[in-house]
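Fold description:
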Amino acid sequence: MNQEEIWDVDAAQRYDTPGTGMFAPDVLRPTVDRLAEFAGGGAALEFAIGTGRVAVPLAGRGIPVTGIELSRPMIQQLRTRADEATIPVIVGDMATSVAPGEFTLVYLVYNTISNLLTQAEQVECFRNAARHLGPGGRFVIELWVPELRKLPPGQTATVWQAEPGYIGLDTYDVLRQHVVSHHFRFDDTRQARLTRSPHRYIWPGELDLMAQLAGFELESRHADWSGAEFTAESRSHVSVYRIPPSR
């Protein structure tokens, strides 16, 4: 499974769930609030902008937003919400593609850095973020914490969500630090729909080392966009990396 195959026309058309899930106001509003604060009145660049879930409301706050996106169908879906003049998008890989302009903020949300399936690509993603930022610029990443503590010996899968009409489970390859997320959606018929996506999981400490290699310093880490304390029990984190200001 490569990313272009996963984020096809069907996935793009099904991606937006207005008002629910990751589009719910209590999920989206804190995200946009914090990113607007981090931008500090400057321009923002979103890696893997997708359909504009975050970029559209952020641009609505008056923050100039540019995107980089590999999937043309996702960009086409974004264009139903914002035109090229409002949110320009570069078609390409977030680890290597370059957007014109100067930015105070680069951000990468909803676990998307894990879509890069090698450590080398993930390090290049950090370096690409640094390439777009000047002194004092920030790179913000939202990422889940691998749930390996839930894996007893001999078991390779964890169920991370089960609710009416949906089951989500992850299968782990701990040697390669890979995980495949399986999403089962079903109703009261005998049919179910399965979608899958591969990821390379990253421990917070490894993420910090990637940042250091690209010239960043860790500024803060919280368990969510509202600023909750990050603990050993946190299932995800929002990590803010900064290029040191010039001295």
Notes: The longest strand covers residues 133-144. The mean pLDDT is 91.
